[in-house]
Specification:
By secondary structure, this protein is mainly alpha-helical. The protein contains 15 helices and 2 strands. 72% of the residues lie in helices and 2% in strands. It starts with 7 loop residues before the first helix and ends with a helix. The mean pLDDT is 88.
Length: 386
């Protein structure tokens, strides 16, 4: 007997995502315009303005990237969990594919960058092309609407989550000076508490959201990127395999519109403020620039597609429902949208301001290339099938 799946929230999420995607791109353009006009310094000063008190006194930019984006990760995590329980990822073979694909999408770009920068002073930036910017990638695929199977959107979301978790681990192990294990232990305690409430059938969302705030606080202070708290919290929220609205679906319903219409555009506005400099053009053909661009655009496409093909051929995984290999190839292109997480790793990789500027421009170039080519390619598949 087939499972009764409540798809209303999922459909609403991607419907709002189509409009939200256009709004996101508008905010990208506005942010780039501000960064290259006289308003640049005042905007940067605004983003550095401190808000809060005591141990939670952070800049506006930090609140956006660490707190608001944790809410975004919460929403995506909720969708991934629901698909694991009752949908596209509920079989082991389907769930395995995005994990294996994400692994290829991290290893191949890192190897390409390492080859271009072997022995150079920029060799430490090997982690830059490993990341996929989940917010922008999902916004682009949402704009495709019915041009791609719904299963492909779930596949990209799951792949991007695994990819970002991998990037967070890379940052924690290779790019973080110190991890505070006492805060990690407290976060672990909160996670155990949330899991026990789920196990004993606690349904009220308030009993998950309040501890979730503390979970975010402890992970943030541990030295690990705080957005992982959103994913961890999502996996403790109760759901079911029927068409009865679950706590998970209620929360997903409440978050879909503010995330797509508010959080993602604010995120784009705050993080795309890249000031163009003459040296950046030369940097595109330097080992640093080529390592990032080839790593993100070609490396992600090759890594995701190749590892997916191997997983299916070796019968470890199955392709998403209704999707073919051309869809996987196009999805690999979209995975090359590195952007914010890549920029974050670049800031940790280099102390030289010129290297940081060159890396930012290369990341922006690769991300635009990946997004545009991936969008056009996937859009053309639907037309060729009609």
């Amino acid at each position: 007997m087939p499972k009764l799946i409540n798809l209303a929230v999922f459909q609403r999420f991607f419907r709002s995502g189509q409009v939200g995607g256009f709004l996101l791109l508008i905010c990208v353009a506005i942010s780039l315009l501000i960064a290259n006009t006289a308003s640049k310094e005042s905007f940067e000063a605004f983003l550095e303005t401190k808000l809060g008190f005591g141990h939670v006194n952070y800049s506006i930019l930090a609140w956006i990237n660490d707190a608001l984006m944790a809410i975004f990760f919460l929403l995506v995590g909720l969708e991934i969990k629901r698909e694991l329980v009752e949908g596209e990822l509920s079989s082991l073979k389907n769930a395995a594919l995005p994990v294996i694909a994400a692994l290829g999408g991290m290893l191949v770009p890192a190897a390409i960058y390492a080859i271009f920068n072997k022995g150079a002073e920029t060799a430490s930036g090997w982690g830059i092309p490993m990341a996929t910017d989940i917010a922008f990638a999902l916004a682009i695929i949402a704009m495709l609407g019915k041009n791609v199977p719904a299963s492909l959107k779930i596949f990209l979301a799951a792949l991007a989550i695994v990819d970002d978790l991998g990037a967070i681990l890379v940052i924690a192990i290779f790019y973080t000076n110190q991890i505070h294990f006492e805060y990690l232990a407290m976060a672990g305690g909160i996670l155990v508490l949330l899991s026990l409430m789920n196990y004993f059938g606690v349904k009220s969302l308030i009993f998950y959201l309040i501890p979730g705030i503390f979970l975010w606080y402890f992970i943030h202070h541990s030295g690990i990127h705080a957005t992982i708290a959103g994913v961890l919290l999502a996996f403790t929220i109760p759901t079911n395999e029927t068409d009865v609205l679950s706590p998970l679906e209620k929360l997903e319903h409440a978050l879909s519109v503010p995330v797509n219409y508010l959080i993602m555009p604010i995120f784009a506005l705050a993080n795309t403020n890249i000031t163009f400099e003459k040296e950046m053009i030369k940097g595109l053909v330097s080992p640093l620039g080529l390592g990032i661009i080839v790593g993100l655009f070609a490396g992600k496409t090759i890594g995701v597609t190749l590892f997916s093909w191997l997983a299916v051929k070796l019968k470890f995984a199955d392709l998403p429902t209704g999707a073919g290999w051309k869809h996987v190839l196009g999805l690999g292109m979209l995975a090359g949208i590195g952007f914010t997480m890549s920029i974050f790793i670049a800031l940790l990789s280099f102390s030289d301001a010129l290297h940081v500027s060159e890396a930012k421009f290369a990341i922006l170039t690769a991300s635009v290339l990946s997004g545009v080519v991936g969008f056009v390619f996937l859009k053309s598949l639907k037309k060729s099938e009609d």
